[in-house]
Amino acid sequence: MGGFGPPRSRKKMKGRLMNALVSRAKAFLVSEDGPTATEYAVMLALIIVVAIAAVTLLGQSITGVFTNVNTKIKALPT
C-alpha cells in the first residue's frame, strides 16, 4: 500500500483500530455527554413503550367499531 514507511501487517492495523475505538468509547463515557445520552435513550425507550401500548389499545377498540359497523351494514335490507 503506497506509503512512506514499511508496510504494516493487518494484525497491527486491527490492533491500532481497536485501541482507538476503545479509547474513544472511554472518553465518551467519561465526558458529560455520556450520562445525557443515556438519559435520552431511556426517555426514548419509555416513549416507544407508551406509543406501542396506545396503538395496541386503540387498534383493539377500532377493530370493535369496524366489526359493529360491518354487522349492521350486512343486516340492512338490500
Can you tag this structure with a few keywords?
elongated; mainly alpha; 82% helix; 78 residues; 2 helices
Largest sheet: none
Name the quaternary structure: single chain
Helix percentage range = over 70%
Overall strand count = 0
The fraction of residues assigned to DSSP E strands is under 5%
> What's the mean pLDDT score?
82
> What are the low-pLDDT stretches, counting only 5+ consecutive residues below 50?
none
What value does the Rg take, in angstroms? Answer: 29 Å
**Cα distance spanning the termini:** 81 Å
3D shape: elongated
Question: Helical region count?
Answer: 2
Class from secondary-structure proportions: mainly alpha
Could you give the order of the helices and strands? HH
